[in-house]
Design brief:
By secondary structure, the protein is of the alpha/beta class. The protein is built from 15 helices and 12 strands.
Length: about 350
């Protein structure tokens, strides 16, 4: 098995699978990470303890693969999917299956076009994970796990699910991959783009009723898009998404008391992914496939999504250097003004 793009998520999954003996694992990642894993093994911290995984290989290029894998776990950023498909093309032609553990909407369809839908398994990870340093990964939360769904409804994912369960992960197998991915999108949206734009932790966003209003409006826009697409929310490991949708329909002050406390706890206290990417100076943001996906689908369906459009446009522009970050950093009024000024389709 090859974990392609092994940062935090790929390293955690590859590490626990290698320790369980469920698979011969190779990590493909950045040079510093690979060098550390080769030298000392992969250091994995979980709420249950600390372990070092040494029964795995690590490489920086596919040219160094010892043997072609029959399974690829894809964990690159969503906007890197096209490049990954091109590089993985020889393995896909040999029949390798692909499990996507990526955020957002659209990766599965792109991979299915290259590999065939029957060889693509959509996945979501509902554990909070981060790369502490090269060669070391931390699982911040215990609640959660992996959800899997075949892109081709007739394909089986039983062997992959069983391997992950033997490795100690909770695994749910679902029937509708689109409903699964949109349900994960709802989780990924909360306290994410606003935190990145404002350089504030989710807990501060929850404490501010006006910023909470942005969160709730963006979430409810996404739910309306899901309804227009005929995608019902589904429960994911550790996260009863249908109950979350119901809670967010309540008056704002009730929703804030009900949902707000889980925002920080759900990530184990770490800052959300879109903020981390901005801090690392990445010029693209996965907001494109989160709030941006909601806005694109909304436009196509005639469903107004002004708040998601603002969040996606502002964060994309900041990441690309088209807008100064200090315009919004710790300045809620600037973001609130941008949302108020957003045109609402009639």
């Amino acid at each position: 098995m090859l974990c392609y793009g092994a940062g935090a998520v790929g390293s955690l999954v590859g590490g626990v699978l290698s320790r369980s003996g469920a698979a011969q694992v190779t990590l493909l990642g950045r040079r510093a990470h690979v060098a550390a894993v080769r030298t000392w093994g992969l250091h994995v911290e979980t709420p249950d303890g600390v372990a070092t995984c040494k029964r795995l290989d690590s490489i920086t290029t596919l040219d160094d693969l010892g043997a072609p894998p029959d399974l690829v776990v894809l964990t690159v950023k969503a906007y890197q999917t096209g490049e990954a498909i091109e590089e993985l093309a020889p393995l896909l032609r040999r029949g390798a299956r692909v499990v996507t553990l990526q955020n957002g909407i659209g990766a599965e369809e792109a991979i299915a076009e290259a590999a065939g839908a029957d060889r693509v398994i959509a996945g979501t990870l509902t554990l909070s994970v981060s790369l502490l340093r090269p060669g070391a990964v931390r699982q911040h939360t215990a609640d959660g796990g992996v959800a899997l769904a075949p892109v081709d409804g007739d394909a089986s994912v039983a062997d992959i699910a069983e391997a992950l369960r033997r490795a100690g992960l909770r695994v749910d197998v679902l029937g509708d991959y689109r409903a699964m991915k949109w349900s994960k999108l709802l989780l990924n949206m909360l306290g994410n783009a606003t935190s990145a734009i404002l350089d504030l932790p989710p807990s501060e966003i929850v404490r501010n009723p006006r910023l909470w209003g942005i969160e709730r409006d963006a979430f409810r826009e996404a739910v309306r898009v899901m309804q227009a697409l005929d995608r019902a929310p589904v429960a994911l490991p550790g996260y009863p998404v249908p109950a979350l949708v119901k809670a967010m329909r309540a008056p704002a002050w009730i929703a804030r008391r009900t949902v707000g406390p889980r925002l920080g706890a759900g990530r184990g206290g770490k800052m959300p992914s879109l903020h981390e990417d901005l801090e690392r100076g990445r010029e693209r943001s996965e907001v494109e496939v989160l709030n941006g996906a909601v806005a694109r689908e909304g436009r196509a369906l005639g469903v107004p999504t002004p708040v998601n459009a603002v969040l996606a446009d502002v964060l994309t522009a900041i990441a690309a250097g088209r807008r100064p970050r200090d315009e919004f950093r710790r300045n809620p009024n600037a973001l609130l003004a941008a949302c108020r000024a957003a045109p609402v389709p009639t």
